[in-house]
Amino acid sequence: MRRAAALVGAAALVLAVVPIAARMSADRRADAWFADDPDTVLRLADQLAASMAEGTHPSDFSTGDARFDGEWALVSCQMTTIALGGLLPTYPDREAAWRPAIHACATWLATAEARAFGTAAWGEDGALDVPEDHVHAYLGWTNTALWIAARVGEEAAAEAGRALSDQLARRVHDRPLRELQTYPGETYPPDISTVIASLALDGRYPEEVASLLARFRADAIDPDTGLVRQTLDPRTGAPGRARGSGTTVSAWFLGHADPGLSRELSAAARATLRDDVLGFGGVREVPAGTPGVADIDSGPVLFGLSVSASGFGLAAARRLGDDAWHRELYRSAHLAGVEHGGWFVLGGSLGNAILLAQLTSPKGVTVPKTSAGLLCYRHVQDRVEVLIVHPGGPFFEGREEGVWTLPKGELDPGEEPLDAAFREFAEETGFPAPDRSTILELGTIRQKSGKIVHGYAVRHDVDPGTLVSGTFELEWPRKSGRIEHFPEVDRAAWTTPEHAATLLNPAQVDFLTRLKELLDASTDP
User: Fold this and answer.
1) Which of 30, 258, 262, 324 is the most exposed place for a label (fewest CB within 10 A)?
2) Which SS3 state, helix, strand or coil, does residue 380 take?
3) Can the peptide bond before residue 434 be classed as cis, meaning omega within 30 degrees of 0?
4) How would you classify residue 372: left for phi > 0, otherwise alpha for psi between -120 and 50, otherwise beta?
5) How many other β-carbons are positioned within 10 Å of the β-carbon of residue 423?
6) Exposure pattern of 433-462 as b/e (b: 16+ CB <10 Å)?
7) Maximum distance among all alpha carbons in the chain?
8) Residue 170 · residue 134 · CB < 8 Å
9) What is the reported pTM?
10) What is the pLDDT along the chain (525 residues), one digit of tens a residue?
């Protein structure tokens, strides 16, 4: 009996000590992630980039269902692109290491093979012209990644993204939310959130985005819990259950379109679904006390906690700035994923891509930055030319298409956009100030980063060779301790609007179109 008691006591001690030790180890890592510690971020990012350097394929998965194999391959590449593409502007010295994975994934996502599982369900390729009520909402996952890739210079991704956005915007225009089907007869609001995110990142469809957000609030969110309904009946609109996986997924994607709504959904998940076992936190798939559910959306459910909801819950905790909740969730990821050397051994490339994307998502509610810029134009014989500038610094060195810009900059507190545009023009170029009497308002655009840009056209002729730009400081190479000075812009050039459209940040091309319309309607010789 004494021996048995001793064994029981030893077992109890192990059960008490192991969770404490695991928590201590996980907490150090969790705090490093929450602080965006570069060494911690890069350890996982570098390994993911290496594992996905050649992309992936549905044959890499064996779920037993061809549709799920295709979905998992798509999400692996999509999350890899979003995670590495989102981090690259912060870590430009990782360009050579990460570019192969970004390029391979973005290239594959634009292929018919990547859509094959959806094509099999619908009997048609959703990236092509199809009936307007055949939405193929799963393509929002693809399109979101394409636009993140476009932000870091993947021109083919930008081209594919524009074409896909055009198709999606046409199909979702003024259509009831219940009709925005992922597969025939299946409407999933979380997938609709990806469509909203992708169109917001595109920036050319602000009215469609605003309308979709209004419809999402009205039809996809359960008014009693604030959680997202997992399904809607495409014929009647009858809602399915509000669930954790759909709520946290939607919260993450909608951060690209409506950070305030993203925060609301994150807070609803925390208030209603937060739970833990011995301090290891998770997000329940359904509220406590209601019948459980486990499927491909939730992933395995253990003690009511959903793998999918908990993984995306890391981003929700960051969105709320809740380090305590983030720490609880990370403990579970650390333990269940068998984290070793920064890599989650049981997660594979898919799990690690998802975790990297969630662990580096924005903290707090981000307010879109606002800039203003001047588009100078001149008449040369029978044609119009516009003045554009190339940004300075190591990240843009050697890059041409998609990175040129108007001379522009952020507004100071209380500053009027037009005043900011003239100030930034002087600071970035050193050119003489234009005559304000020739100003034409070009309205606003939204860049892929979410930044709002006010544009103004002005008739003004300057010599690009007299450019004298202001400078900025940057530690370069990163972690070298050496501070270098770089020009805000390193070149200016006059060119035709047609050529400028191939060089400008894609969102700014709309300014060229608006200038042409204004000049065509004016008597300006």
Assistant:
1) 324
2) strand
3) no
4) beta
5) 16
6) ebeeeebbebebbbbbebbbbbbbbbbbeb
7) 104
8) no
9) 0.70
10) 333 333 333 333 333 334 555 566 789 999 999 999 999 999 999 999 999 999 999 998 888 889 999 999 999 999 999 999 999 999 999 999 999 999 999 999 999 999 999 999 999 999 999 999 999 999 999 999 999 999 999 999 999 999 999 999 999 998 999 999 999 999 999 999 999 999 999 988 988 999 999 999 999 999 999 999 999 999 999 999 999 999 999 999 999 999 999 999 999 999 999 998 888 899 999 999 888 788 888 888 888 899 999 999 999 999 999 999 999 999 999 988 888 899 999 899 999 999 999 999 998 755 567 899 999 999 998 899 999 999 998 888 888 999 999 999 998 877 889 999 999 999 999 999 999 888 999 988 888 666 789 999 999 999 999 999 998 888 788 777 788 889 999 999 999 999 999 999 998 999 999 999 999 887 655
Q: Which residues pair with 388 in a beta bridge?
A: 493
Q: How far apart are CA 231 and CA 243, in angstroms?
A: 10
CB of 77 within 8 A of CB of 352? no
284 bridge partner residues:
305
Nearest Cα to Cα of residue 275 among 300, 309, 230, 224: 309
Closest CA to 189 of 199, 205, 178: 178
d(CA 271, CA 377): 54
Q: Tokens representing 461?
A: 């002729």
For tokens 């610094």, the residue is 393
User: Which residue blocks in 229-322 are alpha helix, DSSP H?
Assistant: 244-254, 259-273, 307-320
Report the distance separating Cα 7 and Cα 95, nearest Å: 55
CA distance 114 to 106: 10
